Amino acid sequence: MSSSRTGPYDVHARDEHDGLEVLRATGPDGLPVVLLRPAQAGPHGARVQAELARAAPVRHAHLLPAVDVLHEPDGRLVVVVPDGDLVPLPSWLAGRGPLAPGELVTLAVPLLAVLERAAATGLLVGRPDLGDVVLDDRGAPLLRRLRTAGATTDVATARASAAAASRGLVELVAGHLEEGSSPLLTALTAADDLDAVVEAVHDLAAPLPLPSAAVAETDDATRGDEVDWSALAGPPRPAWAAALPEAAVVDAALDWLAARRETSVRARVAAVRPRFWLLGGVVAASVVIALLLSAPGGSVDGGTAVATDGGGAAGPSPTPAPAADAGDGGDAGATSPPGQPPTTSRGGERPTPGDDDVVTTGEDAVAAARVLLEARERCLADVTPSCLAAVDQPGSPVAARDAQLLDDPGAAGGALVPTAVDGEVQRLGETVLLDARGADDEPASVLVVRTEAGWRLREVVARR
User: What is the pLDDT of residues 451-462, one digit of tens each?
Assistant: First the structure.
């Protein structure tokens, strides 16, 4: 036939089988593929269209995988599967002649596993036809078309459909046995579930390798001894793997574990490229250097000022404290750390850092709140930006109100200043709500939050 195109694929052969059109084509990369699509568009091809859509996501080693999916202009779904040196089973049987019982076992068991996998995904499986099966160049059977009748959430119903489909498939293949199929058909009649069907097939005979398609064309007497059938079964699985659910992720994980067991540690290490060893060494050296630089004494907390030899101010202020206030010639109360009593009320002498820094950066929110409230009381007596920054959380409600006092220091007398903190009421992450009392035992609430520089006041309100 003349060549045509379907999407990016060059079609050069066409066949039809039970409502399914099989197009042999070549992909853009030059590799052979097979395009599966309904033979007819519209309602006549709806059954096959739905069947292709349901089967496309199913994955199994003996099911040809969908490598591409596209739609024709007339709405027909096209599923693309690999081709390669695949021979349809009817053609192979015609050239092969009668099957030995062991060859039937080798042919049927992998296909039954495909039907079981499809049922495990919730599909109602239909009986495959011999034309749905192909053999690869190793003689391994592959299912090209997975017939389905719908989907269900009932596991028992799905497995029952797979059992019926399995019996039908085995009966079809048994018709090609060289010694007759009566014993097998009798056993299949008594098989009432999928496991019983598989057991009946296994009981027929010991499996024999199938000659590959290439061998069958050249020498009918050859039984494919050169085929490594142990490789077709995949890596060996531990006994406990039988208890795991049927899933592609589980299969991939088990195959990965089996591959690791078969490879020595020395071989895995030797397989790593030198560039990755070099990259790993650079990363390890960077981590060691970072740990050394971050060790105690190796750096200074950016939120804490360090006392100088001259008795400079120290505290959790995010901004440097001025040496002296320009308007009054030096304010010890504004530059001392939170809660540290000044040596003079308005003198030039500054106190040295005390234990209040440890309290405001520690774990005890109640103790930190007491220190911060004492420091805030001193700040309100003589308001400076650096003093408020060491007490209030930037951007908080209490910081906004206290900042207004910079323009009107006389209003500080009306600010609420609790004098006692009774205890913790509620904690949410790094924010703690505290119960407090004012000078006349009026109830109040204090909200403190832990910042990078330590604990800070977020809100101070009176309770009615």
Answer: 888 899 988 888
Contacts of residue 307, defined as CB under 8 A and 6 or more positions apart, other chains included, come to 313, 314, 352, 353
The domain that holds 144 is classified in CATH as 1.10.510
What gap in Å lies between CA 412 and CA 145, rounded to an integer?
A: 86
274 forms bridges with which residues in the sheet? none
The whole-angstrom separation of Cα 330 and Cα 306 is 19
Supply the CATH number for residue 379's domain. Answer: 3.10.450
Count the neighbouring beta carbons within 10 Å of the beta carbon of residue 434.
24
Q: Residue 440 falls within a domain, yes or no?
A: yes
DSSP calls for 302-326: TTS----TT----SS-SSPPPSS-T
Compute CA 92 distance to the chain's CA centroid, rounded to the nearest angstrom. Answer: 44
For residue 247, name the pLDDT band (cuts at 50, 70, 90).
low
Name the residue type at position 101.
P
Reduced to 3 states (helix: H, G, I; strand: E, B; else coil), residue 2 is coil
Q: How many angstroms from the chain centroid is the CA of residue 399?
A: 44
- Angle between the N-to-C axes of helices 194-204 and 182-190, in degrees from 0 to 180, rounded to the nearest 10: 160
| 3-state SS, residue 237 | coil
Provide the pairing of β-strand 454-462 with 443-451.
antiparallel
Burial class of residue 41 in the structure, from the number of CB atoms within 10 Å of its CB (0-12 exposed, 13-18 middle, 19+ buried) = middle
Dig out the tokens for 1 from the structure. Answer: 């036939």
With respect to residue 25, please indicate whether it lies within any of the assigned structural domains.
yes
Question: CB of 406 within 8 A of CB of 422?
Answer: no
Predicted structure pTM score = 0.47
* Single-letter code of the amino acid located at 458: R
Q: Report the helix count and the strand count for the chain, using DSSP H and E.
A: 16, 15
Range of the domain at 31: 4-82
Per residue in 132-174, pLDDT tens? 999 988 888 999 989 998 998 898 999 999 889 988 888 888 8
Overall residue count recorded for the chain in this entry? 464
Structure tokens at 414: 């009306």
